[in-house]
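Session log. Operator J.P. requested a structure for one protein chain; no other inputs attached. Running the standard single-chain path with C-alpha cell output.
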Amino acid sequence: MHQATGSFDVKMAPQKADNPQAEAAGLGRMSLDKQYHGDLEATSQGEMLSVLDRQKGSGGYVAMERVTGKLQGRSGSFVLQHNATMNHGMPYLNIIVVPDSGTGELTGISGSMTIRIEGGQHSYDLEYAIDSGH
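Structure written below.
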C-alpha cells in the first residue's frame, strides 16, 4: 500500500431538490468543489446528501466525488464514495475509492481516505494500491 498526504480546500454550495420525491425527503443537498494539495494535486467535483439534528449532535451524509489530477506523479481520475454518521457527537467516516473507477495512470486504483479538520484546515491521508494487472 502507498500513502499520500496533504491538505485540501473545499467549497460547498446548497442545491435545490430536482424532483418532488427528493423535495419530500427533506434532505440537505450540496455540491462539492475541492482543490487537493500535497501528494495529490487534483480537483474534484461531487454531490452530498445529508440530514442533521444540531441539538442532538447526530446526523449523516453520503457523497460521491470525482477526483482528477496527479497522485504522486500519476495522472488520471478516480471516484471517492463517502459514508459518514455522527451519533451524539461521536463521528464515523468511511471514504473509499470506488472499485474500477480509476482512469489513465490511475486505472486499477483501490484504497481509502481519512480526513482531519484541525483549526479550520482540512487534511487527508490516502492509503492506496494500484493493480498493474488492469
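Operator note: The chain has one helix and eight strands.
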